Amino acid sequence: MNKRTLSPLFLLLIVALMAALISCEELPDDYYDDDDYELDEPLAEKDGFVEEGAGETAVPIPATSGSTVPGTFENNPCPFNVGSSANIECGTLTVPEDRSRADSPTIQLAVAIVRAAGGSRAAPVIYLAGGPGGSAIDDYAADPSSWNYSFLQNRDFILLDQRGTGYSQPSLDCPEFAEAGERDNPDALCYDRLSADGINLDAYNTRENAADVAALRDALGIAEWDLLGISYGTRLALAVMRYHPEGVRAVILDSPFPPNADTPLDEIYSLTDALTE
Fold first, then answer.
1. Is 138 within 8 Å of 238 (Cβ atoms)?
2. Cα 69 to Cα 262: distance, rounded to the nearest angstrom
3. In this structure, are residues 73 and 93 in contact, taking their beta carbons and an 8 Å threshold?
4. What are the beta bridge partners of residue 106?
């Protein structure tokens, strides 16, 4: 196709695409959690909080390197089975659902710790899964042998199912997408059900995820560790580095998903670019 001449068919397709986008149900302003990552947002801290824009929720962050983020860890049986070849300990991290509320209910995050085969002699590594929505524990349990990296031989490997995912409770899994009929809106059905269950969906965001990571390090009594983030996990790792840098020794960003990425817009450009090639 001549890139300088748009065919009527292509113009019709673009018009249809724009009409579909306009007709879509409007999502909450913070649906993609991008407002937390304005590049020109001031980094100054004020009374233990990062200043937010109007109408946004402020989440407490450590005011000094000696501060801690509330969270308690309790050992319990692993919710999965990977055989006897690995030395794995499991537990749950209990944290506030919404750290901006003093009366917030708590939630439980699933944690698995794969002990180093050669004994832990170096800083542990925490794995931050992608998605968002992926389960770090399931990623590992699906094929433990594929995680036999040399740098894990003398480092404990910590798996955290981020809030709302995997074995963590409450779960934000949406079976409505598999069960919905042609006339149903699975997004709305899932949203309404979770809201009716009393889940504060506004609290399930990258900023709170980052605070959960910091809370886990404090609860486990780890002085320093390394972050291994994949895809969305890289965005989470960057948020940990920004808001909770204490104890972060090194970071691995695999397939980075930077804070300034605009996924909905990029997907539209990907379609139009493919059609014009």
1. no
2. 30
3. yes
4. 96
SS3 of the chain: helix, strand, coil, percent, to 5: 35, 20, 50
- Asked if residue 10 lies in contact with residue 1, where contact means CB atoms within 8 angstroms, the answer is yes
Q: Kindly give the pairing relationship between strand 88-96 and strand 106-114.
A: antiparallel
Residues 6+ apart with CB under 8 A from 103: none
Beta bridge partners of 113: 89, 158
Give 250's pLDDT tier (boundaries 50, 70, 90): very high
Distance CA 127, CA 120 (A): 16
CA distances from 57 to 35, 105, 236 (A): 11, 16, 18
Provide the whole-model pTM: 0.73
R_g of the chain, CA atoms, integer Å: 21
In this structure, the chain runs to a length of: 277
* Residue of 107, 129, 125 lying closest to 116 (CA atoms): 125
In this structure, what token pair is assigned to residue 103? Answer: 């009366």
What backbone phi and psi angles, to 5 degrees, belong to 205? -145, 175
Closest by CA to 138, choosing from 148, 151, 154, 127, is 127
Structure token pair of residue 154: 């003398």
The two structure tokens encoding residue 166: 């995997």
Of residues 32 and 243, more confidence is placed in 243
Q: Which of 103-107, 145-149, 171-175 has the lowest mean pLDDT?
A: 145-149
Q: Strands across the sheet with 157-160, in order?
A: 72-75, 88-96, 106-114, 157-160, 125-128, 225-230, 248-254
Distance CA 53, CA 21 (A): 26
Q: Which residue has the higher pLDDT, 64 or 262?
A: 262
8 Å CB contact between 243 and 61? yes
Is the pLDDT assigned to residue 142 strictly greater than 50? yes
Phi, psi of 128 (to 5 degrees): -110, 110
